[in-house]
Amino acid sequence: MQNGRDVLIVGAGPAGLALAIALVDAGFSATVLDAQPREALANPAEDGRDIALTHASVATLRALGLWRRLLPEEIGRIREARVIDGDRQDSPLRFDAQGHGADALGWIVPNHALRRVSFEAAEERADLHLIDGAQALRVLTSDAHAELEYGAFPGAPDHLRARLLVGADSRFSWTRRQLGIAADLHDFGRTMIVCRMRHDMPHDDVAYECFGYERTLAVLPAVGRSSSIVVTTDAASAARLMALPDAAFAAMVERQFRGRLGRMALLGKRFPYPLVATYARRFAALRGALIGDAAVGMHPVTAHGYNLGLQSVASLTHALRAARLANQDIGDAGVLAGYERTHRRDSALVYHGTNAVAKLYASTSASQRFARRLILRGAEHLPPLKAAITARLVGRGGLEPPGAPV
Ligand SMILES: Cc1cc2nc3c(=O)[nH]c(=O)nc-3n(C[C@H](O)[C@H](O)[C@H](O)COP(=O)(O)OP(=O)(O)OC[C@H]3O[C@@H](n4cnc5c(N)ncnc54)[C@H](O)[C@@H]3O)c2cc1C
């Protein structure tokens, strides 16, 4: 039996690696296990996702030493966001950071770049042990420790033991099931197609969310004259859009976007993502906890999945640091219950609110269209609501430095 040390994390995705780095920097030892081979983790393939990041997330990425590893051409900036309803030309709802002491609402970075820099930073930590190409097979938890049986191929199953086991293995988490934690799943019956496009005209760092009646189009500013394109529609239409030749797909986007960016052309492939949101009923179990998408798998329309993932990293790290200071066991039920409370408070409203928005905007009925218009107009004319949404994007927070008082 190998010793998995303080914390054993299943899943070396961006959330699992961020937690491992944060814990090691805080003086814990951590082992991360992933089914993918080292080569795939070190050089992640493009997956079409561009991740919009809040100020708090960027503060966490800086604290972990990830932000400085990103290349300048990987960081887009969002100065302003506009929401457009139906066939209208104008934008009834706009957000910017003015009056919030910031010059940007957020940033936008490709998911594969976040994965790459997370792996690079993890490799540099001597107390961070990474086991790649390993399939997790069985979890056993007891009052004394958590144990994981895994198969690193080729060879017989191996075992790891730690004081705490953390599931960071995506929204369909295997670890979650092994810990006996139920989850609520919502299948939207819709698919999101993501890709990059270049265009003739500058985007001026403005992000657009265009709620059309058959499909939703988001255009997010990347570096230079290129944007991240997100088309959401029902599964059958998505299959048709995926089958279109590149030029016909580009023409469809250009048309729906009413030529605001001039001529548009695809850069690379399109990637389809069926939309299923998940919310774990508990974020903690006996000597176990969930973070990232394994805890909360968001609908991407409000761009909060990874932002919440980093929040779960900051909250769990804080709870474990506080436990150590109080000479408590880091796998203690009371310690994990504290993490559970914090992350539920941070995630419940945004999860259910996002699902409500996603359902409202997927509907084509006349009453729902009317409701959408009212909501957009209402939000524009309700300064406290707009301010609250903007504050969530530009607000301070994130991972506290290892030496900070707990
Ligand atoms: C189209 C799209 C757009 C998005 N846009 C945004 C955005 O703008 N802003 C934002 O904040 N978020 C966004 N997200 C969400 C964001 O991508 C996710 O929240 C984030 O990638 C989840 O990271 P994770 O580490 O929790 O999980 P994952 O990235 O899914 O990683 C899980 C890891 O676990 C490993 N694994 C799985 N099962 C096992 C097992 N049994 N044994 C061992 N290893 C295992 C996998 O190999 C993988 O490496 C978007 C998502 C999508 C789909």
TrEMBL record:
Coiled coil: none annotated. Pfam families: FAD_binding_3. Its cofactor is FAD. Keywords: FAD, Flavoprotein, Monooxygenase, Oxidoreductase, Ubiquinone. NCBIfam families: PRK09126.1, Ubi-OHases. Belongs to the UbiH/COQ6 family. This is Ubiquinone biosynthesis UbiH/UbiF/VisC/COQ6 family hydroxylase.
